[in-house]
Amino acid sequence: MSDLHEIEEAPIPLLNDVLVAGNLLRARSPFARAPAPEAASVPEGAPEPVATPASPETMAAAHAVPEPTLAHEPEPVQAPTPGDTYALYAHDADALVERLRGRALSWLTGEGRGVIEQRCSAAMQEHAHWIVGQVSREIGLALETELKGWVKSAVREELAARATHGTTPGA
Predict the structure, then answer these.
(1) Tens digit of pLDDT per residue, the chain (171 long)?
(2) Prediction pTM value
(3) Burial class of residue 149 in the structure, from the number of CB atoms within 10 Å of its CB (0-12 exposed, 13-18 middle, 19+ buried)
(4) Segment Disordered: which positions (predicted)?
(5) Nearby residues of 116 by Cβ (< 8 Å), 6 or more positions away
(6) How many angstroms separate the CA atoms of 131 and 137, rounded?
(7) Closest alpha carbon to 27 in 38, 19, 35, 39
(8) At CA 40, angle to CA 34 and CA 44, rounded to 5?
(9) Which residues of 62-97 are buried (b: 16+ CB within 10 A; e: fewer)?
(10) Separation between Cα atoms, residue 92 and residue 100, nearest integer Å
(11) 3-state secondary structure string, the chain?
C-alpha cells in the first residue's frame, strides 16, 4: 500500500498553536505586499535648507493645510456569501478529515497494531488468572465437602475393621 499521506505533508498543528489570528476571510494574501516608499537620497554632509523671510501672505500660503482629497474612488468590497464561506470551510474540513483518516490507518496498520496486541494480551492474561482463581476456589470448596465425607467413611471402615479383628478367635 503506498502511503500518499506522508509525502510532502507538514505535521498537523496542535489545537493550542495559533496559526492565523483573526478572520480567515479578511486576511490579506502574504504575496501581495505594498511597495516600500523610496527614500530621497541626501548626502550625509549636505547643509540643512534655511528659510528665507517672506511676506505674511507667502507664509500663510506655505503653511496652509491643503484640502484632503481621495486619490481614487474606493472600490466596493463584496462580502463573501454564506455559501462561499461554507464551501471554503467544507473543503478545508474535507482535506483535514482525509489527512487524519490516512494517518489513523497508517498508525493502525503499523505501530498501533502492536499496541493493540499488547493490550489484548494483557487483558487475556488477566482474565486467565481470574478464571484460574475462580476454578481453584470452586474446586477447593467441592474437595472440602467431599474430603469430610471421605475421612468419615475411612474412619468408620477402620473402626469396623478393628472391631472385626478384635472379635476373631485367633487374635
Answers:
(1) 445 555 556 566 555 555 556 665 555 555 555 555 555 566 676 666 655 656 777 777 777 777 767 666 667 777 666 666 777 777 888 889 999 999 999 999 989 899 999 999 999 999 999 999 999 999 999 999 899 999 999 999 999 999 988 765 554
(2) 0.35
(3) exposed
(4) 36-61
(5) 108
(6) 10
(7) 19
(8) 135
(9) eeeeeeeeeeeeeeeeeeeeeeeeeeeeeeeeeeee
(10) 12
(11) CCCCCCCCCCCCCCCCCCCCCCCHHHCCCCCCCCCCCCCCCCCCCCCCCCCCCCCHHHHHHHCCCCCCCCCCCCCCCCCCCHHHHHHHHHHHHHHHHHHHHHHHHHHHHCHHHHHHHHHHHHHHHHHHHHHHHHHHHHHHHHHHHHHHHHHHHHHHHHHHHHHHHHCCCCC
Residue type (1 letter), 21: A
- The cell for 133 is 482463581
Backbone angles phi, psi at 69, to 5 degrees: -135, 150
